[in-house]
Amino acid sequence: MVFKPETGSLDVQGAIGRAHNFTQDRNPRSERLAGPDDPERVQVMARPYKRQKKGTGRHVQLPEWLQASEAWATLPPGPRALYVELKRRYNGSNNGDIILSHRDAAMALNVHRNTVGPWFRELQERGFITMTKAPHLGPSGIGKASVWALGEVPTRDGKPAAKRFMSWRQKQKPRTKNRTLRPNGCDGWVVVEPV
Fewer CB in 10 Å around end: N or C, the chain? Predict the structure, then answer.
């Protein structure tokens, strides 16, 4: 049956055939709605919001105030990538217990393991990370990796965030005198001081 708004009546003619096809092809989430524009229109009912949504997934958050610091602005790309990898292993409650060895970092960043050592030192010098446990051999002779803490968030044991990188300043290179060496005719070079 289809309602005809122009006549105000129900159209029963052919309703049996349409109903038979409708019940065979019917999607359980759809229902047939008759409207003034299209009497044969099928509308699918929407699913409830977030019914099967498990979340947006994990992500790494780099706050704007961290990126605006001089320590971050002057940081080369290698140590930045290493910091993002350390931050990726932070789950919101394990700061001070983030385990990342040089080998694992090298595999994650697709570089040689000797390359990441200076990157760890650079991050430590600037105050982005601190080592809470040094690498060592365990009781069974199996090596234990370094354990790290991020400087921007509080540690697991309740210590506030150090944020030492906010006070880091790039060292200025001392200015040297400009000295030009010029040949002195026959016996050697003469140092000429600029005026």
Answer: C
